[in-house]
Write a structure and sequence with these properties.
With about 70 residues, this protein is mostly helical. It contains 3 helices and no strands.
């Protein structure tokens, strides 16, 4: 398995915020930060998709797809 490149950082974070985030994830600091950063990176993509809603016409019959 190919390992992703990593970067060691020092960050000053509000302790309570970090503890709240860890309580949600049930993970350690590093894993919690990875999850948070990944969600932040995806948030913009989701917003872009929401803006496109109703602007793209598909030639797919939804009822036909449901029958498959």
């Amino acid at each position: 398995m190919l390992q992703a490149q990593t970067q060691k950082i020092t960050a000053h974070l509000p302790v309570e915020l970090l503890h709240e985030a860890q309580a949600v994830t049930g993970k350690g600091i590093t894993e919690t930060l990875k999850i948070a950063l990944a969600q932040l990176a995806r948030a913009n993509t989701y917003e872009d998709l929401r803006k496109m809603r109703g602007k793209i016409n598909f030639s797919i019959d939804v009822n036909q797809l449901r029958e498959d």
